C-alpha cells in the first residue's frame, strides 16, 4: 500500500511538472505567434535576411582626360576567379557545376594564374575536405584580364566561375603620373559586408576623389541556399551613379615631348632630380609637367619619389630670381641700364661678407647694368637691392609677386617656399636666388607678369568637370588674374633683357637659342646646401642647373622652366647641356604644334601633316604617298604590308617628324643621323634590346643595314651632338658660397 501511495504521489508530481511545462511552452508559442519576435528579434525579418542576397552595384569612377579628350585614366574591367567545390550544388543537373576533378582543374589553371598546379590542387582539396561551398586563389586569382578570363572559359572547366571587378588603369603608364596620381581599391566593412571601392591616393585622383568616384548602388533578392533566385524574388534595385569626368589642361603632345626628353636626359646624365613645366602665360593653363624620378601608376611599388617637385619641393633657385630683382628696380624707377658699375666683387659694408661674381670674383670689368643682367652678375644684383632699391622695398616686390605664398594650383601637396630675410647678407643673396627658397611653380607664376603685360595669372591643371552620363559641363575653370606687380612698360623692358640673355654676344644663355623662334629667358646655377651642415656642396656637378624661358619673346605664348640637379658630366660637358636639350626640344616642337607663327625665317617646311590609316596598307605605295605629302618616312624591311608604326592614324605631326613603318619582313635600316627619340621608337616597335652611348644623333650602329631584325635582338648605337667639334664657348654662371 505504501509503495502504491508513493507511485501515485510521484505520478502526480510529474503530471504537475509536465502541465506547467506545457503551459509555459504553449504560452511561449502563442506569444511568438502573436508578436512574431524571439528575444527582440523579428522572425519575419530574420527569415527574410537569411534568404535574401544583397550586393553592392559599383559605380564607374569618372575618367580623366587631357585637353584634347585623350583618356588618361579609366576603370578597366578585370575578373576574380573562384571555384565551387560543393558537390550538392550540382544535384539534379545534367552537367556538373562544381569541381569534379581537382587534379585536372589545377593542371589547366596553373599557366593562367602563375601558380604551381599542386598549389591550386591543395586549395581545391582543402576546400572540399572542410565542406566549403567555394574556394578562391588569393592575389593570383584577382585582376585577371578579359582575355585571360575568356581563355579559361574556353577550357569548359566545371565549377570555375568569375566575378567582375574594376581596376583603375592608366593607358600611358609613366605619363604625367605625378599630376594624375593614382587610385586603388580599398575595402571597408559596412554592416558586416565587405564593400570594395576605388579611392584616389595621389594627384588629381586624390584632389578630385569625391567628384570622380560617384555613388554605389545595390541589388537585393530572395534566394535559396545555393544563391539561386526564387520564382518571386522580391527584387530591389538602386542604380549606381557614375562619377563625373575630369578634363585637364595637360596637352598629350606636349606632355609626351616632356616625358621623352626627361627620359633621355635621365639615361644620359643620371641626375638626382629632373623637373620641367610648360604653361600658357596668358591663361595659367599648365600644358605639361614632369619630374624624374617618377613612377608608373599602374604599379606604384618601390617609388623613389612621391613628390611632384614642381609644386612640392622648394629650393634655392639661383639666378633665375634675378628676373624679379631687375623688374622691381625698373618698376620703382631707380634703374638705368646704361649706368656703369665695377663687376667682380662687392661688399656692402665692413660687417657684411663680400658678394662675388660667379667667375671667382674676377668679374667682367666696368660694365652696364644691362650687360650685368645678360652676364648674370651677382654684383649687379646686390648693388641694385642694397644701393638703388632698398631691401625693404625689394621685400615688398617679392611679396607682390606672391613668392611668400602658395600659388593655389589645383593639385594636392603644394608647399610654399620661404623668404629668408633676417640678416643683411640674406637680403642681398635673395636678390640672386640664394638663401631664400621657392618652388618652380611659384617662379613660373611670377614670370607670367613679365610675359603678360604685367598681369600675373594663377596656374591651374583642371580644365572642366563633365557629367559622364549627359556630357554636360558642370564646372569650368577660367583664367584668373591674381595681381599686377609691374606695369606693361616694365614687362616690355624685362622681355628685352631676357632676350639679351639668349641672343646677345655676352649673354649667358646662348645655348638656349631656338631655330624658328626668338626665345628669351634667364639661366640659373644654384648651389646646394650641404646636408651635413656647413655651407654648400662643392664640385662642378653639385648644382641645380636651370632655365626659365619664354617664346616668341615679343609676345610669349609659352613659358617653360627646367631644372637638372647634380647631373653626371663629362669633362667636355657643362651643366647647361642637359637643361638646354630639354628646353629646345620641348619649346621648339610645342610652338610648331600649337601653330604659333615663327618670328624667324623658317629653315624648312613645318606644316602639320595628318597621318592616314597605315596598318595593313601596302608598304611601298603608302611610303610614296606620305613622302609626296612632305613626310619623312623610313620603311623597315621589304615586306608588302605595314604591321606597325610609331604614328597612329589621325595624328597630326610636323613635317620633319620621322614616320617609321614596320613591314611584315623587317630588316635593319640605316639609322645614321637619327635622334635618340627616333631610335627609342624603333626599339619599342621591334622590342629590341637597346643600348645607347652618348647623346645627340646616331653616328654608328651595331647592326648592319639590311640585316634581318627579330624581336629581342640587340642594338647598340653611338650618338654625338651636332657640331660637337665646333661648339661655342659658353659663359657658365654660378653663385658664390656664403662664408
Strand content: 15-25%
Helix content, binned percent? 25-40%
**At the third CATH level, what is the topology name of the largest domain?**
Beta-lactamase
Q: Can you tell me the CATH class of the largest domain?
A: Alpha Beta
Radius of gyration: 35 Å
Shape: globular
Verbal overview:
It comes from Oceanobacillus piezotolerans. InterPro entries: Beta-lactam/transpept, Beta-lactam/transpept-like, PASTA_dom, PBP_dimer, PBP_dimer_sf, PCN-bd_Tpept. With 739 residues, the chain is of the alpha+beta class. It has 4 domains: 49 residues; 191 residues, Penicillin-binding protein 2a (Domain 2) (Alpha-Beta Complex), CATH 3.90.1310; 331 residues, Beta-lactamase (3-Layer(aba) Sandwich), CATH 3.40.710; 113 residues, Trypsin Inhibitor V, Chain A. Helix content is 30%, strand content 23%. The protein contains 20 helices and 33 strands. The strands form 11 sheets. Strands 4, 5, 6, 7, 12, 20 and 21 form a 7-stranded mixed beta sheet that branches. A 5-stranded antiparallel beta sheet has the order 14-13-25-24-23, with helices on both faces. The protein has a 3-stranded antiparallel beta sheet with strand order 3-10-11. Strand 20 and strand 21 form a beta hairpin. The longest helix is centred in the N-terminal third of the chain and has 34 residues.
Amino acid at each position: 500500500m505504501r509503495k502504491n501511495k508513493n507511485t501515485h504521489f510521484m505520478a502526480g508530481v510529474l503530471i504537475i511538472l509536465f502541465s506547467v511545462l506545457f503551459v509555459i511552452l504553449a504560452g511561449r508559442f502563442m506569444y511568438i505567434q502573436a508578436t512574431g519576435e524571439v528575444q527582440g528579434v523579428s522572425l519575419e525579418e530574420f527569415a527574410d535576411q537569411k534568404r535574401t542576397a544583397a550586393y553592392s552595384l559599383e559605380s564607374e569612377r569618372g575618367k580623366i582626360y587631357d585637353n584634347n579628350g585623350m583618356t588618361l585614366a579609366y576603370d578597366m574591367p578585370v575578373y576574380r576567379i573562384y571555384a565551387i567545390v560543393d558537390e550538392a550544388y550540382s544535384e539534379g543537373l545534367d552537367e556538373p557545376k562544381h569541381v569534379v576533378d581537382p587534379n585536372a582543374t589545377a593542371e589547366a589553371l596553373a599557366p593562367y594564374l602563375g601558380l604551381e598546379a599542386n598549389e591550386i590542387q591543395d586549395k581545391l582539396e582543402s576546400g572540399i575536405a572542410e565542406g566549403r561551398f567555394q574556394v578562391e586563389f588569393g592575389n593570383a586569382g584577382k585582376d585577371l584580364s578579359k582575355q585571360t578570363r575568356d581563355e579559361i572559359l574556353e577550357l569548359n572547366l566545371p565549377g570555375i566561375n568569375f566575378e567582375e571587378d574594376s581596376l583603375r588603369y592608366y593607358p600611358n603608364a609613366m605619363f604625367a603620373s605625378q599630376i594624375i596620381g593614382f587610385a586603388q581599391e580599398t575595402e571597408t566593412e559596412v554592416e558586416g559586408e565587405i564593400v570594395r571601392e576605388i579611392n584616389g591616393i595621389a594627384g588629381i585622383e586624390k584632389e578630385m576623389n569625391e567628384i570622380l568616384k560617384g555613388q554605389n548602388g545595390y541589388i537585393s533578392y530572395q534566394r535559396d541556399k545555393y544563391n539561386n533566385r526564387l520564382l518571386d524574388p522580391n527584387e530591389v534595385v538602386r542604380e549606381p551613379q557614375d562619377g563625373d569626368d575630369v578634363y585637364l589642361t595637360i596637352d598629350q603632345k606636349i606632355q609626351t615631348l616632356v616625358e621623352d626628353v626627361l627620359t633621355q636626359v635621365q639615361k644620359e646624365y643620371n641626375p638626382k632630380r629632373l623637373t620641367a613645366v610648360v604653361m600658357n602665360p596668358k591663361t595659367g593653363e599648365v600644358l605639361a609637367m614632369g619630374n624624374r624620378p617618377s613612377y608608373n601608376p599602374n604599379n606604384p611599388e618601390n617609388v623613389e619619389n612621391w613628390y611632384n617637385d614642381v609644386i612640392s619641393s622648394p629650393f634655392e633657385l639661383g639666378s633665375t630670381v634675378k628676373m624679379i630683382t631687375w623688374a622691381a628696380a625698373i618698376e620703382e624707377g631707380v634703374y638705368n641700364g646704361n649706368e656703369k658699375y665695377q663687376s667682380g666683387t662687392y661688399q656692402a659694408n665692413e660687417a657684411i661678407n663680400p658678394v662675388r661674381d660667379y667667375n671667382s670674383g674676377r668679374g667682367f670689368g666696368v660694365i652696364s647694368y644691362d650687360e650685368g643682367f645678360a652676364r648674370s652678375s651677382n654684383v649687379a644684383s646686390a648693388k641694385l637691392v642694397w644701393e638703388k632699391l632698398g631691401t625693404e622695398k625689394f621685400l615688398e616686390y617679392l611679396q607682390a609677386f606672391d613668392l611668400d605664398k602658395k600659388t593655389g594650383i589645383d593639385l594636392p601637396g603644394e608647399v610654399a617656399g620661404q623668404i629668408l630675410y633676417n640678416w643683411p647678407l640674406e637680403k642681398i643673396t635673395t636678390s640672386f636666388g640664394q638663401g631664400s627658397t621657392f618652388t618652380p611653380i611659384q617662379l613660373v607664376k611670377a614670370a607670367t607678369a613679365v610675359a603678360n603685360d604685367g598681369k600675373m595669372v594663377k596656374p591651374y591643371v583642371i580644365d572642366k568637370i563633365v557629367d559622364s552620363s549627359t556630357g554636360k559641363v558642370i564646372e569650368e575653370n577660367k583664367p584668373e588674374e591674381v595681381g599686377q606687380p609691374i606695369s606693361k612698360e616694365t614687362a616690355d623692358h624685362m622681355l628685352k633683357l631676357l632676350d639679351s640673355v639668349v641672343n646677345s654676344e655676352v649673354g649667358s644663355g646662348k645655348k638656349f637659342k631656338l631655330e624658328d623662334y626668338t626665345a628669351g629667358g634667364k639661366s640659373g646655377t644654384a648651389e646646394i646646401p650641404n646636408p651635413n651642415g656647413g655651407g654648400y656642396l662643392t664640385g662642378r656637378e653639385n648644382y641645380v642647373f636651370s632655365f626659365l624661358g619664354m617664346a616668341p619673346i615679343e609676345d610669349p605664348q609659352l613659358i617653360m622652366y627646367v631644372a637638372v640637379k647634380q647631373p653626371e658630366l663629362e669633362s667636355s660637358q657643362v651643366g647647361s647641356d642637359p637643361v638646354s636639350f630639354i628646353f629646345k626640344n620641348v619649346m621648339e616642337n610645342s610652338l610648331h604644334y600649337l601653330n604659333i607663327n615663327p618670328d624667324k625665317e623658317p629653315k624648312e617646311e613645318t606644316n602639320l601633316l595628318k597621318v592616314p590609316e597605315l596598318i595593313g596598307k601596302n608598304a611601298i605605295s603608302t611610303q610614296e604617298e606620305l613622302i609626296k605629302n612632305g613626310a619623312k618616312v623610313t620603311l623597315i624591311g621589304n615586306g608588302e604590308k605595314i604591321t606597325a608604326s610609331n604614328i597612329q592614324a589621325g595624328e597630326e605631326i610636323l613635317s620633319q617628324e620621322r614616320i617609321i613603318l614596320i613591314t611584315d619582313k623587317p630588316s635593319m635600316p640605316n639609322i645614321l643621323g637619327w635622334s635618340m627619340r627616333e631610335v627609342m621608337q624603333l626599339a619599342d616597335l621591334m622590342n629590341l634590346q637597346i643600348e645607347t652611348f652618348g647623346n645627340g644623333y646616331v653616328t654608328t650602329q651595331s647592326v648592319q643595314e639590311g640585316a634581318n631584325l627579330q624581336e629581342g635582338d640587340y642594338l647598340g648605337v653611338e650618338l654625338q651632338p651636332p657640331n660637337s667639334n665646333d661648339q661655342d664657348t659658353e659663359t657658365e654662371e654660378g653663385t658664390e658660397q656664403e662664408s
